[in-house]
Amino acid sequence: MALTQITPFIGAEFTGVTYEDFQQPELWNQFVEQLHQRELVVVRSIALTPQQQLELAARLGRPIPFVLDKYRHPEFEEIMISSNEVRDNKPIGIARVGNFWHQDSSFVANPAPYTLLHGIKVPSDSGHTLFANAADVYDRLPEEWKKRIEGRKALHTVSKRLRIQAEHVGLSVAEFKAWIETKHPKVEHDLVKVDPDTGRKYLYGAPEYLDSVIGLDANDNAAFFALIDELIQAPQRVYTHEWSNNDLVAWKTQTTLHAVTDVEPGVDRTVHRISIELH
Ligand SMILES: O=C(O)CCC(=O)C(=O)O
Ligand SMILES: [Fe+2]
């Protein structure tokens, strides 16, 4: 077994670990400790059945079934199939999950704190997952902006990324907007939070799930969005996870920003995804 720090700013990586190894409490505790301190943990090439992935997830908290039942794993409702594969003319999962920078489910009041992905059929040369550390993003804000946003709250929304479904056919744009307002009302979160695991301040909000920072005018909001987009995506502060089959990847949803890069048409990419709430 080897444990390495992936970059100075985010991530720890285990290699040479099997599911059976995780039965040793010391190793599992090390995994949890690294997740808390490094925000993102990669376990390279660990063969797991869906049941074993679920069992590991259940040690972190309570795995929660995905909202859309169509794309739940046929046997394990807590596993969501995130995939662009089509079999017998039917998509086997949800395609293009997370193809923009975000913090998972920040548009709900209480986002589940952990996400656990297992690479089932993944290309190695595209469909990478990019990760940034939200505490590192906060640290790199100019002092002037740190002062301007101190104590402020931001409104989060899924509306920029919500997908139009069959049930919306025939609605006018105004009706669709009204439906979004009712079904997915904006939620408020502190813009700067403190991570209890590390004691570090972090930025909670990425432009694609942000409506606005409360109390800033439209120009300042636009300037702030442009600034944080640039800080989040600064290439030297981004870790690019190039997948191998069976990689297990876990992250803290609040302090980790991430985005998946595109795959070429015709290239399959399937991962099993579990959202985990605290008990
Ligand atoms: O498929 C991936 O690598 C990550 C997609 C994503 O953003 C997520 O599952 O939360
Ligand atoms: Fe995500």
From TrEMBL:
Pfam families: TauD (PF02668)
Gene Ontology CC entries for this record: cytoplasm
Record bears the keyword Metal-binding: yes
Keywords: Dioxygenase, Iron, Metal-binding, Oxidoreductase
GO MF, one annotated term: metal ion binding
Keyword Iron applies: yes
Entry superkingdom: Bacteria
InterPro entries recorded: AtsK-like, TauD-like_sf, TauD/TfdA-like
EC numbers on record: 1.14.11.17
Class of the enzyme per the UniProt entry, highest EC level: oxidoreductase
Residue ranges occupied by any TauD/TfdA-like domain in the UniProt entry: 4-274
GO-annotated biological processes: sulfur compound metabolic process
The family this protein is said to belong to: Belongs to the TfdA dioxygenase family.
Annotated protein name in UniProt: Taurine dioxygenase
